[in-house]
Design a protein that fits this description.
By secondary structure, the protein is mostly beta strands. Helix content is 14%, strand content 41%. It contains four helices and 16 strands. Strands 2, 4, 5, 8, 9, 12, 13, 14 and 15 form a nine-stranded mixed beta sheet that branches. Strand 4 and strand 5 form a beta hairpin.
C-alpha cells in the first residue's frame, strides 16, 4: 500500500501537464505527502488541494470521540462497497505524483524504497474524492495487486497508474470502464532502494479499506 509519495511539481506545472485549470484557492502541500495532510488532485477539470484520506470516525472505549483516522488507500476489490461506492461512481480524480514509497526490510529496521516511471517527471495514480465535515475535500488513492509488475519484488500492492488514455477513461468513463483500468502496471519502473529509515508517525500508519 502507499502511505507516502512525492509531488515535487507546483500547481501551475500540474495544471499544464494535465490540461486542467488551477484552483483559485491556491495550494499548500509538502514535497512528500503523508496521510492526513494536503496534496494535489485533478478533479472536475481543475487542480485542487485536498486532504489525503477519507476520515474514518472513531470512538474511544468510553464512547468519547477520537480524532478521525485518514483512510488514504482504497482497495480495488472494495470500490463497490458502501464506504467507497458513491465516490467511485460519481467523483473519480487523478493524483499527480513524481514517485511513491514503500517500506522494505525487517520490522523495526525498515527503509524507504522509492518507485517511479522512467523518464516521466510527473504521472498519475487513480483516485476518488468527496467532501467531508471533518476536513473538507479529501481523496484516496486506488490500490491494486502488484502481481505481474516489477513492484511485486517490493510490495504486494501498488497504486493504479494511468496512461494518458487511461486518465481520460478514469475521469469520463463509466464505473465499469474505470474498474477495468484497475490492474498492475506492466511497464518499466525505476526502483530506488535507500538506507533512509521508514520513519515512525504518519508514514507508518496504514490506511487501507
Amino acid at each position: 500500500m502507499c502511505n507516502l509519495y512525492r509531488m515535487t511539481r507546483n500547481a501551475n506545472e500540474v495544471a499544464g501537464w494535465f490540461g486542467a485549470a488551477e484552483a483559485a484557492e491556491g495550494a499548500n502541500f509538502g514535497a512528500e505527502v503523508y496521510p492526513g495532510y494536503p496534496g494535489l488532485v485533478v478533479a472536475n477539470g481543475a487542480v485542487r488541494p485536498m486532504t489525503w484520506g477519507f476520515p474514518l470516525v472513531r470512538k474511544g472505549a468510553k464512547g468519547q470521540p477520537l480524532k478521525p483516522k485518514p483512510v488514504n488507500n482504497a482497495r480495488t476489490d472494495k470500490l463497490t462497497t458502501f464506504f467507497w461506492r458513491h465516490s467511485f461512481e460519481e467523483r473519480r480524480c487523478l493524483i499527480p505524483l513524481t514517485a511513491w514509497a514503500e517500506a522494505e526490510g525487517a520490522k523495526g529496521r525498515m527503509t524507504r524504497t522509492w518507485l517511479s516511471l522512467p523518464d516521466a517527471p510527473l504521472f498519475a495514480a487513480a483516485g476518488v474524492w468527496r467532501e467531508s465535515e471533518e476536513w473538507g475535500a479529501c481523496y484516496a488513492m486506488v490500490m491494486t495487486e502488484s502481481e505481474g509488475s516489477e513492484v511485486a519484488a517490493v510490495h504486494s500492492r501498488m497504486p493504479v497508474l494511468l496512461t494518458p488514455e487511461g486518465q481520460a477513461a478514469w475521469i469520463q468513463g463509466t464505473a465499469g470502464d474505470a474498474l477495468a483500468l484497475c490492474s498492475a502496471w506492466h511497464g518499466r519502473l525505476v526502483i530506488d532502494r535507500t538506507d533512509k529509515p521508514w520513519a515512525k508517525g504518519a508514514a507508518s500508519q496504514p490506511g487501507l479499506l
